[in-house]
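2024-03-11 09:14:02 INFO worker-7 job=invfold-0412 stage=load source=structure_tokens
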């Protein structure tokens, strides 16, 4: 048959072509695949003879794809990616135990409420982190990091959009005519603060907080005790709002470009495990508070 030459193409020949074409070099392809340059050249030569098409132009200073090679490369890359992704989904190493490192506030107010939807045969261990620098010392399978989603060799997805607004206990609010008269509670760390709120709203800036805490959990607890007004992360304050322990003071929202992201080292998890955890913990998942 006329198509016989396309049947049973050895995958190692095709992989050698794809790597060399994508990287633009037999040497780079050899380094990526763990083969020698001679082995890459040999496999591509076998492939060209089988197809009866030249895929590369050999030049004194390197190689370049021919018109045919350039046309075929995107299809080969797509096909190999599909094989890799489907293999990870179906046959990848499935974990039975995973460790998640995050701040106490994120664990208590975001991750734990969503565990009611967790019915997978997967044991999760949570490790509480206090400061971002601690992540450098961690060996957790997943980490919740605060930022804009740029961490090199890590896959990541945002847990939620960070929105900040003043919250106060109803009892404390009843003691004043204007909430701006109340003491302010501040939270140390990477989140935006009262100065940023003043720039957004035009309120009088008051940099002096009566109390400062190192976590949203402590600041929310202090606000519920009537110690002052907290510029709170709305996604982390849903339980306090739902039970009436705190109330919102304004419809205005301070939207932060940074926020908490679920992250993991690339190739640490099977694609299926990562997708299940992303679905469980990200904002798009069912909200147990609603």
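2024-03-11 09:14:09 INFO worker-7 stage=emit residues=290
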């Amino acid at each position: 048959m006329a198509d016989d030459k396309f049947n049973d193409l050895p995958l190692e020949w095709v992989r050698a072509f794809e790597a060399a074409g994508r990287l633009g070099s037999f040497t780079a392809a050899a380094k990526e695949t763990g083969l020698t340059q001679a082995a890459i050249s040999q496999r591509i030569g076998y492939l060209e003879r089988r197809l009866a098409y030249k895929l590369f132009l050999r030049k004194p200073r390197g190689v370049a794809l021919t018109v045919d090679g350039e046309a075929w490369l995107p299809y080969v890359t797509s096909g190999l990616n599909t094989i890799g992704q489907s293999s990870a989904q179906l046959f990848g190493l499935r974990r039975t135990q995973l460790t998640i490192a995050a701040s106490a506030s994120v664990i208590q107010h975001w991750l734990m409420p969503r565990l009611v939807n967790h019915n997978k045969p997967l044991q999760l261990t949570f490790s509480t982190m206090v400061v971002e620098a601690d992540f450098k010392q961690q060996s957790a399978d997943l980490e919740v990091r605060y930022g804009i989603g740029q961490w090199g060799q890590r896959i990541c997805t945002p847990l939620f959009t960070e929105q900040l607004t003043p919250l106060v206990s109803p009892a404390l609010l009843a003691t004043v005519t204007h909430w701006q008269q109340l003491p302010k509670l501040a939270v140390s760390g990477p989140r935006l603060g009262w100065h940023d709120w003043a720039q957004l709203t035009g309120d009088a800036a008051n940099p002096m907080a009566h109390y400062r805490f190192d976590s949203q959990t402590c600041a929310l607890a202090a606000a519920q005790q009537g110690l002052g007004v907290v510029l709170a992360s709305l996604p982390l304050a849903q339980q306090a709002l739902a039970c009436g322990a705190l109330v919102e003071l304004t419809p205005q929202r301070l939207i932060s470009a940074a926020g908490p992201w679920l992250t993991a080292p690339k190739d640490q998890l099977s694609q299926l495990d990562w997708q299940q955890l992303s679905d469980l913990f990200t904002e798009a998942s069912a909200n147990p508070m609603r």
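2024-03-11 09:14:09 INFO worker-7 stage=report msg="Confidence is low (pLDDT under 50) at residues 286-290."
2024-03-11 09:14:10 INFO worker-7 job finished
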